[in-house]
Amino acid sequence: MHYLYRTLLFGVVCLVAPALAADVDSRIDAVTLYPGNVAEIERVASVDLQDGRGDLVFSHLPASLIDGSVRVAVTDGNVRIGGVETTREPVGESPRERERELQNRIEELQRQQQDAFDRAAAAGNEITFIEGLAGLPQGEKAAEALMNDGGAENWASLWERIGNGSRAARERQRVAERAAADLNKQIETLQQKLNQLGRSRPEMVRVSVPYRANGAGRAELTLSYRVRGPSWQPRYETRLDTSAGKVTLNRSARVSQATGEDWNDVTLALSTSQPVHGEQPQLDPWWIDFAPEVEPMPRADKAVMMESMDGVGAAQQAEAPAQTVNAEFAATYLIDGRVTIAAGNEPRELPIGSHDLTAVIGAETLPQIDPRAWLVAETTWDGAGPLPPGRIARFRDGAYIGEGRLDGWAPGEERTLAFGIDPSIEVSFKPTKDETGKSGWVTSKSTLVRDYTLEVINHHDRSLPVTALIRMPVAKNEDIEVEPNYSVEPDEKDVDGDKGVMAWHLDLDDNDSRRLRFGYRISYPEGRELRGM
């Protein structure tokens, strides 16, 4: 009976006994950065626990912590933990107290500014009074005063006093006006701080985890959570060696964070996904169509309609769909060694790696857009993992060419990298015919005939493949007929799925040249107007 009583009493005491709170001193050990300015933070901690139950408390976590992302695990120790509870606690002085302080300071400066205004106004009144004295005496009385004994000396003394007084008054006025201006700047600065203060009080996050320790001892813990704000951007450097026929691709990452806590001596991993395309100029399909038929109208109404048409055109252009790529892959880059990233949002450049790529060197020209040739290198990314899109710096035989953007690059994907204008490739693009007319026996049609000549000359002392990309008009309406003509058939039609884009692959020896003639004939019903030409 006594044993049962003691057992029940111990159970009651355990139920009502307060849980012990164990403040956990943790440090950041690992960070993983993800797209969308999100980072996964992992903290590690060792804590000595007494036998029994209590709460593990992680304090002073950043306010950028994402609610619901907190996880706590025991990596070593005879401890069981329960659910995670997060609370946000205000820190620092209350914004309302700070607002009152700023408002009181602004009012004090405004009083000082008003005093400066008053001193400037008083000096201005004194100047007006002195200027009035300078006008006395006047007329005949002035002449009599000067004729009296000592009149000239009195006048000279009076004039000297007026001048000195005027200069002193103007100096006081300038000092007061400068003081008022300086005070106004201080007031504006404090007013901006007051406007930016907002109504929310700064916060820190507190994580509490209940535990049950089966005996006293040390426990090893990990705390992980996600925060918003940190970011990383890929950086690339491509170095083309034309003599060796290779491209060296150097990769790095620019990392910055302002979470409120420094990442000291951490392992850093960079994750990426969804690369997108877009950098080098592309030849889009060249569509032509009939212009809309518009009935004649009064001049004023026509001007209003033209303004309306301009607005519609701008809206259509803004809503043009952007090119995207299906990027069903992701990669994680682990930075070698441990790094430190301060919380001041200052970017830090971290190397990822370097890779040599075999390349086929050639040139490309788009003479309808730019009558020059670009030196290019065709290569394939054969590294372990995809490359996300990012800024790229280009070098050709050690010379800096410029910067651009590298699209997302999947393993095994062939890519043409541009390395600036090639001055040793001469491109001449000239129109040779531009005629309009009519044709047809039964149905009269309007015709448009245009021809061009393209000549490419290789001034290198070596052979070089050159690709000429030309676009032809493509009709959207079946009543518009487009008949292309070439002196030499193109090697590729509808390049990369773009209708009307043709490619000629020219293998040019040193100091060799090739000439191409091409053009088109467009016919359409008479009385209609073409759009897009």
UniProtKB/TrEMBL annotation:
Keyword Coiled coil: yes
Domain DUF4139: 221-526
The DUF4140 domain, residue ranges: 31-130
Pfam families named among the record's database cross-references: DUF4139 (PF13598), DUF4140 (PF13600)
Assigned keywords, A-Z: Coiled coil, Signal
Domain of life: Bacteria
InterPro entries from the UniProt entry: CHP02231, DUF4139, DUF4140
Keyword Coiled coil: yes
Signal peptide stretch: 1-21
Coiled coil: 99-126, 173-200
Database matches in NCBIfam families: mucoidy inhibitor MuiA family protein
Stated name of the protein: Uncharacterized protein (TIGR02231 family)
Native organism: Methylohalomonas lacus
